[in-house]
Amino acid sequence: MPHLEALVENGAMGDLYQPPPHVPALAFTTLATGKPPGRHRILANWEPDPLTAFPRAISRASLRAKPIWEILEDAGLRAHVCNWPATHPAPLLRGGAVSNLFAPATTALPRDWPLVANAVHPPESETALTGLRVHPADIAAADLRYFVPRLDEIDQDNDKRLIPLAGAVAESVTAHAAATWQLEHSQPAFLAVCYPLIGAACRHYLRYPETDVFGGAVAAACQFQDRMLGTILELAGADALIVIISAHGFLTGVAAPGPQPAAGDFWPRAHGVLCLAGPGVAPDMLLHGPSALDVVPTILAWLGLPAADDMPGRVLAEALPGTLPLPRIETWEPARETRASDPAPAPMTGELSKLGYTDPAAGRLRTETARFHREESFQLACYHLAAGHPASAIELLEPLAKFGDPPHAASYLAWAYLATNRIDDAAAVEFPCTDRLSGLLRALILFRSKQTPEALGLLQASEANETDPVFLCLCGDVYRMSFRVLDAERCYDRALAANPELAEAHLGLARILLAQGRVREAADSALRATGLRFNLAEAHLTLAAALARLGQTEAARAAAATAGALRRRTS
To answer: What is the Cβ-side half-sphere exposure of residue 10, based on CA atoms within 13 angstroms?
Structure first.
């Protein structure tokens, strides 16, 4: 991948932390707005169609935060966005926009493929852009052979594994054609384009060994993406500021929790990739601990614009040594009111029923709308738990657990109760499923209830044959909270042996080491945790405690100040 390699050598790069849940529309909206999910409100990949009640890709109707392209337009720059999740209807940008419903095919044959209304802005460019679309049926066998050289060995009548590859290639080529057309004809000052190819290839083909007919598909997808990157770089010019991001990665090898799941599913890796290159970027720099919330503040600083106080992320100033970030402004958001670019809200089925409409779809729409809101609440609760806000998660999880959907809501509610020391409430939770998490929670509840022998037996049984590093880290947390220091250390060590990038395991180990008086080792572990996740306030606080005990007073004060600032921003 020569084009990406050149950017890395001449720019700054690091693992980009994306907190769970790893829902693409949610994750990409966090990247684009610099706001956490609770503020931008894009919480799912789908929503019910108000006319048919069937699921459709989520629209901009729920978006409650300005993405970077709208901020830049407000600052006087012409911005363009192409194929980014949750951008339909296309926003009314002066630099033009192509929504995420423009590229995906909706029909079996190209001749029957209509352009979705409001997928392109301005409307005058619709004809030219529509002619650039590529349908999966347009992808010939010779094209797919680039990704699967042994294509002739596949019995396509019975083996349908080529279908998602053709779809991802067609969508990415279409998005690429639209983006390059905009660069050539509209010449925006800012361009954001989302390519699904590598993500789709990893989801569907990363599970296969090199000996399989699909064994080289992921590597070929990366090489093909790099060729498209080269075209973008050529059109953008040598003085362009370039940001390459992936919302998350994929676990493989010993870091994977077990055998690869069913086709189309995947084991997400909490860290994606961030690469900055262009004028003003420190060359060949390794970034430590950047998060998805840092991307927008950094781009704004790079362009000479201030970040806002309501953006929890930091400016990655170490990547921009010659750039002095401006003082933050209060917000880039206007007082919330309907703007011309906002999509119209969907009609409410209850209001239609009052007017006498009794379409059979109305009942289904009510059911699907309720299911959609439950999924939104659950995903937001998962985010709050990962961000260290269990009280906020409890408010969302209690009605979900009472309703019984999703089934895992009860386990997550018990975990949130335990995190807020509501032991009796946690013990009263009825677990509708017997998954690993519910067993772990029962052990913690027994520990907290002073039933140590029973708890120890249950936890040791849960840990015995476990290989999932995240679950092993949770086992370590249970042991740590139950004051079983050596057991906790063993679990954390096993988790890190499987996945050295697990910041939570480094933090747990740091706390255990500090409790044992192994202060130097504790400082090292806490420092590793901050390097993987800079926004992990507890890691900075643990580092501060270790440094203070080492007599490094000023460094300890700085670490404590960082922890305080992070907590204030994420509160």
So the answer is: 16
Establish whether the linkage from the previous residue to 89 is cis, with ω within 30° of 0.
yes
Same domain, 560 and 537: yes
Residues 278 and 410 placed together within one structural domain of the fold: no
Q: Rounded to whole angstroms, how far apart are CA atoms 75 and 70? A: 9
Residue where a domain terminates, one of 213, 237, 261: 237
Select, from the ranges 239-253, 323-337, 525-539, the one with the highest average predicted confidence (pLDDT).
525-539
Please name the amino acid found at residue 59.
Answer: S
Q: Output the DSSP codes for 81-102.
A: EES-TT--SPP--TT-EE-TTS
Exposure letters 285-300 (e unless 16+ CB within 10 A, then b) = bebbbbbbbbbbbbbb
As to burial, measured by CB atoms within 10 angstroms (0-12 exposed, 13-18 middle, 19+ buried), residue 567 is middle
DSSP-H helix ranges across 95-155: 126-130, 141-144
d(CA 556, CA 567) in angstroms, rounded, equals 17
Supply the range of the domain harboring residue 454.
368-570
Identify whether residues 196 and 247 lie together within a single domain: no
**pLDDT, tens only, 465-481:** 788 888 899 889 888 88
Eight-state DSSP code of residue 556: H
Please report, rounded to a whole number, the percentage of residues in the chain having pLDDT higher than 70.
91
CATH number, domain at 537? Answer: 1.25.40.10
Which pLDDT value is given to residue 570? 62
Give SS3 for 2. helix
How many domains, in total, are found in the chain?
3
Q: Give domain status of residue 511, yes or no.
A: yes
In a domain, 9, yes or no: yes
Q: Is the CB of residue 283 less than 8 Å from the CB of residue 10? A: yes
Considering the domain boundaries, does residue 215 fall inside one?
A: yes
Alpha-carbon distance of 271 to 504, in angstroms, equals: 13
Say if residue 173 is in the same domain as residue 247. no
CA distance 36 to 466: 32
What is the per-residue pLDDT across 148-203, written as a single tens digit (0 to 9) for each?
999 999 888 898 889 999 999 999 999 999 999 999 998 889 999 999 999 999 88
E strand segments, 324-364: none
Based on the fold, state whether residues 198 and 254 are members of the same structural domain: no
Rounded-to-5 percentages of helix, strand, coil across the chain: 50, 10, 40
Give the residue-averaged pLDDT of 127-138.
94
- Does 397 lie in the same domain as 526? yes
pTM given for the model: 0.84
- Regarding whether 176 and 70 lie in a shared domain, the answer is yes
pLDDT (0 to 100) of residue 295: 96
Q: Is 41 part of a structural domain of the chain?
A: no
Q: Residue 44's closest CA among 373, 388, 344? A: 373
Same domain, 106 and 250: no
